[in-house]
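Q: Convert this sequence to structure tokens.
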Amino acid sequence: MEHDLVVFVPGFLGTRLTLDGHDLWGEYSEALLGRGPQAPAPAGLVLPPGLGDGLPDARFRPAADELLMVPDAMPGLLCCMGYPDIRAALGDPVEGQFVPFPYDWRLSHRLIADLLKVRVERELARWSEQVDSHYPDRPDDPQVVLVCHSTGGLVGRHYLECSGGRETARTLVTLGTPQQGLAQAVRLLTGKAVGADEAPGADARPLNEALRDLALGWPSVAQLLPVYDAVRVEGRSRLRTLVDRRYPVPDLPTALVEDAVSFHSAFQQAREAHRHTDTGGRLPYEVLCVGSTAFPTERTVGL
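A:
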């Protein structure tokens, strides 16, 4: 509806993480591709081990309050072109009606979904007090339109079904969201994200090890592991899942696989539970999933 609150949830890399005026990931990624893996990761990028769904203490918590405005990427995993024109692209909502939700994309999607709930409830209450001055003839009270890019869609759908956001939502729009995970996450977490032809110099191993060491401590990356049949086994015609113990993926920690499965299962179970109470089994909000053929994604990994 024209009078609804529009909340934009960016994806992986889509928020600038800054500390003392430095763009932590932007500067480190440039150093990796320039000087190579010997460039040390800044302390603000490294999360403490075993963080899970928790919020890190101040030492590991850079500011995450600005959307990315220029292109950036994590080699071998994902890229983000930035969002310089996102408000205009969404129809240029009136002042106070558009709410960007920047966040620390390293952290667990479960945690971010809970933080999104707090933010949406506060902003919707504020907008409900202001909406009459802009839309006096509105047919009903304002609700929320969630527009989520890339992994932001995982946050948005978890918020709606697992964190109590469905009652105030009008629409969920996901743009290029990896709904069942990414095969690239397997490569990243096993030290095989970047091929030799893509790495600075002739040897990709040091770069892959540096990326792996960093990503192993980021809960969001583990939750990007694919939960569909993504593993090709030589000599076998059928694809396997990461939880098939007959064909384990070397160097992929079991705990990370279990967390990815748990994250996606929680959403599916919540959805099924709500289906039994929804009128006619239909969602109370509309879902629009938009994909792209311009940027094909790897679907499988081979043992």
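Residues 5-42+52-302 form one domain.
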